[in-house]
From TrEMBL:
PROSITE patterns: GST_CTER (PS50405), GST_NTER (PS50404). This is Glutathione S-transferase family protein. PANTHER family: GLUTATHIONE S-TRANSFERASE GSTA, GLUTATHIONE S-TRANSFERASE-RELATED. It comes from the Bacteria. Gene3D superfamilies: 1.20.1050.10, Glutaredoxin (3.40.30.10). Signal peptide: none annotated. Residues 82-211 form the GST C-terminal domain. It holds the Pfam family GST_N_3. Residues 1-77 form the GST N-terminal domain.
Amino acid sequence: MITLHGFASSNYYNLVKHVLLYKNLPFRENLIYSGSEELLAISPVGKVPAITTAEGFSLSESSVICDFIEETYPTTSLYPENTSERAVVRQIMKIAELYFELPCRRFIPYVFSGTDIPKSLKTEVRQVLARGITALNRLCQFSPWIAGEQFTMADIYVYYVNTIVNTFGASQLEWDVQAEIPGMKPWHDSISQLDITQQVETDRQANMPEFIEKVKAQIEAASPK
Ligand SMILES: N[C@@H](CCC(=O)N[C@@H](CS)C(=O)NCC(=O)O)C(=O)O
């Protein structure tokens, strides 16, 4: 059985969990926070999520884990058979990671520590997001799924990326990023209503208070005495 290591407030953790649930695979969850020695033993950069298989194989990096799960358990496939179509699914995921998720994550240290975000950083993030918007407008189909008729890994991946972009776009940039991509909002809403998404969301909300306490404790420990 697979063990999924991490915490339910993490969107990266949740996208892997969604894939496991979608494929109806048995797995157990090991609640663990970033930076611990236990996590470093299975995740080389000490980030969540990570998985461990029954054979003792460990793996980190959410998109790599997703592909490992797909290749190990190919039934209920989350990729098209056609290689070009598969590549486009991965292209959408990569662009969402590089041009949506990662720039927005640059705000996180400021938000958690309650410090003002420099104007220059906001400008930089806006520019990167704008490139992501242009690219995703060219690639996404929403007919009805993000890459066409088949529900794919990109639907799961971009949905969880969007949870970060929606939060920081609205709170830090006063920008409804999704609105810039026609078709994305109804697509996002339909994924949010899936049973699996709701189950993942319930677990996220349950973990949130503990996660916030952990972050506060880390900030406290790091602040000069
Ligand atoms: N590229 C990694 C990123 C994972 C990541 O950033 N996880 C966050 C939690 S959402 C984390 O562990 N952060 C702790 C840290 O940055 O030290 C992936 O796709 O899995």
